[in-house]
Amino acid sequence: MRVHGRNATSFQLLESDFRIQEDVSGQGVVGFVDTGAAWVAGGEPIAAPEQILGVATRFLDAARLAGRRAAFFATEGQLAQLPASRRLLLGRQPVWDPAAWSATLAGSRSLRAQLRRARAHGVSVRQVTADEVAPGTPLRTQLDALIRRWQARRPIAEMGFLVRLEPFAYAHERLLFVAERAGAPVALLSMAPVYGRGGWLFEDLLREAEAPNGTTELLVHAGMCAIAARGDRWATLGLAPLAGPVAPWLQRVRRVASPFFNFVGLEAFKARLRPSHWDDIWLVHVEGTSPVRALLDALTAFAGGSLWRFGWRTLRRGPPPVLALMAALLVPWTVVLALLDTTRWYPAPWMQLGWVAFDAVLCVLLAELSRRWHRALGAFTATLITLDALVTGAQAMTWYGPRVASAWDALWLVIATVAPTVASVVMWGAVTRDAAQRR
């Protein structure tokens, strides 16, 4: 790794999710995650340039013998000639020459303004040692709390693979910077070495919600200045996923998934830092496996082995896009309730009117919470939906159930009882996530 780890992801292979497989020839290693159906490697094999294709080919053969599909995620071009393989463009990776950072800063008025803004609000950055962030130290305790609050703000559940958050793993080999305000940490930068290039990956860049504007840029500035002083000539902030001329179907994925991950904002932030150039980043998979299947295998690695479990964990967090979807679905559902045969499905007309009005109010509350979270309103709405689930369940057993006369009736009844229960789980998840941020 110290000699041949040229991929930006090479140091990350030491982190907890990865298995390391040594090539049978002893000429290299591959770090990968086993999802149960596929072996997904993090970047290219770590080997001498002339050995990379051979090591990669033998890795694919080993995966086939183990009954697994195989792919290399986040490769930088050295596998372009891998036999019997195909490539899918995943996005772009910005690259800087740290020696040119001072010139970059001098040529960017907006970047200088961001640094001034953070400093004017009392933010300062200092490099910290591994001993200062050892488990149990005061600073580590503060940073662990910062990390938990940062994770609580994310709309999706915690992910693994190449985005596993382990900023202090092998801390003695990293560069660590903390942004502080009034003596308390408000942001963290953890940089991982890319030994084969004599460079650095700005791997983890986290900040408090209330950190002043420009805090992140101030951390990047400190990191660039530090590695420039060391004489290092290569740095990256890592992949901007789905950036650049990706396939049309991936462009659609980017649009659909944007409420959960800010692809555009991440690419724009990295572009504002004026990289010297962008490198294409690829997913390499075996011929005969569709690119969609290969990408799903990679996403499964990020999801910790199951996309379904990851989806459920995300749903339980009550992210704003899910609240907005719940509000949207309530519109046609409320119309259906209003059009149902009153004499068959309701004990009295006033009960039908009451349910229609109740769901209309819920729709408004959910729409407001998806736009802007209110602590008390969130708890109130969660309580209302829980009561809805309890009352609907009781009515299903005592009134609705005996009136089911067809499969359509049964489907309607299942939706009517299950939907508020799931919605209750989602809402209390949102309340819990908000409380975690406040703590």
Please characterize this protein's 3D structure.
The structure is a single chain. The model has no long low-confidence stretch (mean pLDDT 93). The chain is α+β, with helices and mostly antiparallel strands and 439 residues long. Strands 1, 2, 3, 4, 5, 6, 7, 8, 9, 10, 11, 12 and 13 form a 13-stranded mixed sheet that branches. The chain folds into 2 domains: 223 residues, 3-Layer(aba) Sandwich (Aminopeptidase); 122 residues. The chain is built from 14 helices and 13 strands. Helix 5 links the parallel strand 10 and strand 11.
Top keywords for this entry?
Aminopeptidase, 439 residues, 48% helix, 19% strand
Give me a quick take on this structure:
This protein has helices spanning 52-65, 101-106, 109-120, 138-153, 215-230, 248-257, 263-272, 291-302, 307-316, 320-339, 342-345, 349-371, 375-400, 407-438; strands at residues 19-22, 28-34, 38-42, 46-47, 69-75, 85-96, 123-128, 175-181, 184-194, 199-207, 234-236, 240-241, 277-286.
Please, what is the average pLDDT? 93
Main β-sheet, in a few words?
13 strands, mixed
Q: Tell me, what's the shape? A: globular
Q: In which range does the helix fraction lie?
A: 40-55%
Poorly predicted regions are: none
Instruction: Tell me the radius of gyration.
Output: 26 Å
Q: Return the string of H and E elements.
A: EEEEHEEHHEHEEEHEEHHEHHHHHHH
Distance between the termini: 40 Å
Name of the CATH class of the largest domain: Alpha Beta
Number of strands: 13
| CATH homologous superfamily label of the largest domain | Gcn5-related N-acetyltransferase (GNAT)
% residues in beta strands: 15-25%
Note the total helix count.
14
> How many individual domains?
2
The CATH topology of the largest domain is Aminopeptidase
